[in-house]
Amino acid sequence: MYERLASTATSLRNGLIALADQTFPSIDQAFGHAIKNADGHEKWVDFFSIYWHRDCVLRLSIEKFTESYRKWCLRRNYKFRTNTAHKLYALAQDAVPTLPKNNGTKALVLQACKSLNAVCEAKQSTQEEMNRLASLLPEYEVVMQMEGTGPITGPALMAEIGDVRRFKNKKALVAFAGIDAPPFQSGNFESKSRHVSKRGSPHLRRAVFLVANIILTLSHKDNSVFCFMDKKRAEGKHYYVYTIAGSAKFLRIYYARVTEYLRTQEIPVAASCLNGNS
């Protein structure tokens, strides 16, 4: 469900960006990283639904626009900065729209913004429910303390893995994710280059791949998974190769930590199982 919503949001966002390029070019990049409010709305989308054409900004002086933007931020619970308002005004001055400022263009933009915001709201509520359900599991705190996990990836891992003790060892968990390399040999021949099996859960494979990417981007040299991937990268390995290797290492660590925690807490197997399928 969450993956479908995320895919739909991406498609709608790309469509809105294409439309914005014709009325207010580069507005989607004006706020840096995607800033969201409690509803899951992205700040640039909410801004664009009000200032849907660069002329909506330029009809005001820079002082009046700054005050208008300040009031808008206050109403929508976004942080206001004067230099951001000035940056937006300068962007409007440099923008070259290809669609006119009329009711037809306005209707297109507002409908596109409304559709994207509706999906983002559904995605946000789904994410919150996933996190709530995951928090009921005994291993929740252990998993959420692992680097790379967060309110999306953590619950996704726990949902797909279920009770980790249903796997007889860490290799079985890696195989379930489909990131193990099956043997490829015949007689005296044995391949030195093998693809991952992809025979397990595609949802778990996607979740752990995201975790590995987060670790690779945000982690530091004290993290064993990061060091492992960084070493493979330094050896000249392809991005996909060292990321998959890091994903497998993360799952092995996940298995060890969660299994040990559940054992020490003497948690019954049934109490920790989220998806119930073995």
Automatic annotation (TrEMBL):
GO molecular function, one term: transposase activity
GO BP field: DNA transposition
InterPro entries found in the cross-reference section: Transpos_IS110, Transposase_20
Superkingdom as given in the UniProt entry: Bacteria
One Pfam entry name: Transposase_20
Domain Transposase IS116/IS110/IS902 C-terminal per the UniProt entry, residue ranges: 141-216
Name of the protein in question: Transposase, IS116/IS110/IS902 family
Organism: Faecalibacterium cf. prausnitzii KLE1255
